[in-house]
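Minutes, project huddle
Topic: does the predicted pose make sense with adenosine monophosphate bound?
PN asked that the exact inputs be recorded in the minutes so nobody has to dig through chat later. Recorded below.
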Amino acid sequence: MSAFNSHNFNGQKVLIRVDFNVPLNDSLEITDDSRMKAAVPTIKKVIADGGKVILMSHFGRPKDGPEEKYSLKHLINHLSVLLDGATVLFANDCIGEQANLTASMLRNGEVLLLENLRFHKEEEKGDEGFAKKLAELGDVWVNDAFGTAHRAHASTAVIGKFFEANKRFFGLLMEGEVASAEKVLHKAEKPFVAIIGGAKVSDKILIIENLLERATDIIIGGGMAFTFMKAQGGTIGNSLCENDRLDIALKILKLAKEKSVNIHLPSDSVIADKFSADAETSVAPSNSIPDGWMGLDIGSHACHQFSNVIKASKTILWNGPMGVFEMPKFQHGTKTIAIAVAEATQNGAFSLVGGGDSVAAVNQFGFADQVSYVSTGGGAMLEYFEGKTLPGIAAVKG
Ligand code: AMP
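Predicted holo structure (tokens), as shared on screen:
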């Protein structure tokens, strides 16, 4: 693998795997272009060098071949705007004669967008023949699609074998994601707190187990905290609970004790009489919730308790909200945690927010620019923190 920034791509055909899987409305207009914007620095660097940019991406989940609503042609105009008016050509198929011809005729600084990779079922199957055809389009391969780095697809991983080590690169987005994750996983300054929230323990077991090897403190909030409460003999009313994970919760608590990792569970919860934005609310100890009520956010003592741990930390990883932050009555906990993370960051801590809903929360509350890094790759970041090797990273590193 070579360093992207120190390479000059002048005159080279640069095949870049991006994640342009943006949402469209019924009129096929882009409703959130963040994924496209995230790839712009990489594309602009190649254009500035005088390279020839060839972009490939998946888009939606087409079932059986081409489908109009999943065509990447809907992105051409906006892509050109994001690239300050650069010429964006389009190939109706990501492989084949037209793609080959257009790629070979590209002039320096021009951009070619290939049609949706997933119009070929070989993409998701990781088919080697298909990967080879894609590889033939470029002199070098740049992987900038962190969001799909956990998939061993043709364009994200298998393609790597058709490029020599000095012709494979991480794009700038991918480089940033990998560097941030590595910093937290392998170079964390202590105290290191992991804040884990969200709905289900089952989704987060592997992450927690991996973090038990690394963190000094683990804060557990959100719906998953109630499985831990019940496992220890608490009463939790109608709160979320995975009865088949009670043993795992106890095992995690035991392991944490053995490894001297402090587990922090919310002492109190905001409780509701129904799962609804207009529910009646009250407050109760998290291990003593009355029948007919459910915990939907952490309470004020827990906010205080968690904030203190966060503010004393030098490294912070945050995955998953503390409550049902989508409803105003239950967003106070998540917001308070966001404020504490922002404050700790301002005081010199390194903070990484990764994984779907906590990213949505920091964006919603306007804290995205007050933390050190917000990851764009939900599933990929989760798997990274579970300690797995991501195929899209391994394929570049070799
Ligand atoms: P996850 O995708 O596992 O991170 O879960 C995120 C979802 O968990 C969000 O939609 C939250 O509304 C939900 N959530 C957080 N806390 C609770 C809770 N106490 N009860 C039910 N759902 C919750």
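Observations noted during the meeting:
- The pocket of adenosine monophosphate is lined by residues 198-200, 203, 222-223, 240, 295-296, 320-321, 323-324, 326, 356-357 (CB under 6 Å).
- The domain at 188-385 is CATH 3.40.50.1260 (Rossmann fold).
No decisions taken; revisit at the next huddle.
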